[in-house]
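re: that chain from earlier
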Amino acid sequence: MTLSVGRIPFLVCAPFFHDFLGREDEFANVDFVDGPPSAHCAGLKDGSIHLSPASSITFAQKPGAFVLSPVLCTSCSFEVRSVKLFSKFPIEELGGRTVRLSSQSKTSVSLIRILLEIRYGLKPVYVQGFDANPIDDACVLIGDLALEENERHRFAYSYDLGTLWQDWQGLPFVFGAWVIAKEALSPELRPVLENYMDCTEKSIERFRANPKSALDRWLSRYPVKLPRLVVEDYYKVLDYRFTDERKRSLALFFDFAARMGLVERAPELEFL
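^ sequence. v structure.
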């Protein structure tokens, strides 16, 4: 039986996956499926994949169906740089204005709504989209698109969503979590799963030990339109440890999402 892993080809996920590139044949019981967080969120919910470092909101969208890695997540030390609101106006002036929401991540959509509506008390007009659109007053971009937009300087204002959350709640935000379908806990798959997660932890360690070599491997498969120094500097703000503080932050995010009706209820965190 094969373990299906949702692989996200964004720079933020390079430490999770770089060590597997070119070695997929060594993991005969693992099938890697490339796609954005939104695709893996859908795949987790419909059963087509078993696990992924998916948008953290995925765990709350199907209560009782998943467990989380107790040690790995995608978070930041303060800013995240790759989940941002770009705006023609100060954030306080976005009430009644159009805000384009990325279709790639339900977490970023939920977070910006919580920030705009609860923290700032605003009621923008939301539109769905993928990239920045010049007719919009503001847009939320994630992943490599956000990093590329940082370099273009086309908007008068930009706001890091990780910073906005931490300024408000005093906790680092958890953008991604290793969401694992309970089907992967079967006697046939659990040994494969546990070995895979152990190898993922080693992949992060090897990335930190030799980021240049790791990025050479990653960018040869998934190139980006960014200067190499910008790419290397990006990893200074990322933290993949799922600390107790980050677990409290994730539970608080789910509480806000439930309060706004973005999820049915705030689930209890369950771990592998």
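The chain has a mean pLDDT of 94.
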